[in-house]
Model the fold of this input.
Amino acid sequence: MSAVPITYDMDLFRGVKHRYYDSDSSHYAGIKANGTTTSSVDYTLPAAPPAANDYVLACSTAGVMSWSGNNTPANPSASVGLSAVNGSATTYMRSDAAPALSQSITPTWTGVHYFNNLVWFNYVVTLFGTAYHDYAKAASHDFILTTTVIGEAASRLFIDAAGKISIGGGSSGVDTYLYRSAAGVLLTEGNLNVKSIARVGGTLSTDYTNRGNVGTGEDDLATYTLPASTLGANGDRLIIRAYFETANNANSKTIKAYFAGTQLYSDTRSDALLVSHWEIELIRDGTNSVRGYVKATFDASNEYVISLTLTPTLTASQIIKFTGTATVDNDIKQKAMNVTYYPAP
Done:
């Protein structure tokens, strides 16, 4: 049968379809309209075959069809945005994506995460809860962690495979080092300035402000709050020194010393213009046990010493203070108080 030319539109009603049979008329491919088509449209085929394999047939809203690209994915042409999701998820992204992913997200990671190559975090990364890291390949690298501030010429912090911490100012390499030399021993190749207690003896507090009583009743004079666990090992000790002056009158004047809410010593006198010096030593001898002494010196012939046994909660912060009880303002003036800490040898 020869081809039949059709020079007019052909309308097929009631869902009738066109069927195109194969060479032996055993199978066909059919084309028909959707059963619920809501508006009429003519689909116009492309004018030529595709430029290469794997192109797909695309269509405009006007029904004009064309060959579109191929199925090989390309890098995005603009920054990629994602919807931030805070939760556990598995995310895959091409390592050569260009331009780079541009999105601030706050994921919650669970389990161990391995980074086998250089990873850049341009914002703060916060680790919370029970977090740990397994640097299984650290031995094959010079550094297992490097921290660089964006815009600076050099990294500020390095941690190498041996655990040595190298620190710099961000402009020209590192110049400060801290590392472990043995169990429980840290070494530095420079000076170490300690601004808090780190098992290093030294002055914890010096108060040289004149502090006087106010009228009648017991008034706090100098006070200091000892940080929790300062006396963290047996043999750790404190030396507390203070001195006082009394007014030029015969009023009754009482000075008391306290530690952890316990009165250590009290002295009452009516002497005028009397200077007294107090020294207290407290030594930890158990988990919540302290022994020591108070020595109060008033002149060459008036010195009093008593021994102490206390049971404070050493894992909590405790208040060291002196108080004054007198008649009128400034009957008693505390001139200074110094607290010094000495670790066990």
User: Anything to note?
Assistant: Residues 84-92, 127-141 have pLDDT under 50 and may be disordered. The longest strand covers residues 275-286.
